[in-house]
Design goal:
Distance between the termini: 32 Å
Strand content: 25-35%
Oligomer: single chain
Number of helices: 5
Length: about 170
């Protein structure tokens, strides 16, 4: 897995990644991934709070790369979220027709690192983060968003962990 992650990150960083662009229903994709984590979230007592439009929100993206972005974020929630808390998933249309996707949760451990450093390779939020994984999940998510002409930002505010993605429609 580590070698595959490094290979993907390297390709994305060098703009050598081939994209298979199609219309991706963002809300449907997010819900599909959360269903895959539903059992674990239930065990952890996590409640998902959805603030999304009723209608489809389709963007021209690579479905597989976008899936990987969200999967990495939901795996992080599974690993690091505070038990018996809420996870907020917001999809908002901006005035300029861009789509903003915000996913936020409370971290179980205090984060002693700025959000922008969490998207660097092999960085974990604190020394207690010694679970499985390569330490590349957020770096890959950011690179995959950027290679698709989107933005990806991590904001840490106390125990609040927030990712903000913006994709042009």
């Amino acid at each position: 897995m580590l070698i595959e992650d490094l290979f993907d990150l390297s390709k994305a960083s060098s703009n050598d990644m081939v994209l298979d662009i199609s219309f991706v229903d963002i809300i449907n994709l997010l819900k599909q991934i959360t269903v895959e984590h539903e059992e674990k979230y239930k065990e952890m007592g996590l409640e998902l709070i959805w603030n999304v439009p009723e209608e489809k929100v389709e963007l021209s993206l690579d479905n597989q790369k976008t899936y990987r972005i969200f999967e990495n974020l939901f795996l992080n929630i599974e690993k690091y979220a505070m038990k018996n808390s809420r996870v907020y998933i917001d999809v908002c249309k901006q005035e300029n027709e861009a789509i903003e996707i915000i996913i936020r949760n409370m971290s179980a451990e205090l984060l002693h690192i700025p959000g922008d450093q969490l998207t660097e390779r092999f960085v974990r939020g604190d020394v207690s983060r010694n679970t499985e994984g390569s330490g590349l999940g957020l770096a890959i998510a950011k690179s995959f968003a950027e290679v698709q002409k989107g933005t990806f930002e991590v904001i840490v505010d106390g125990d609040l962990f927030k990712t903000v993605m913006l994709f042009k429609k």
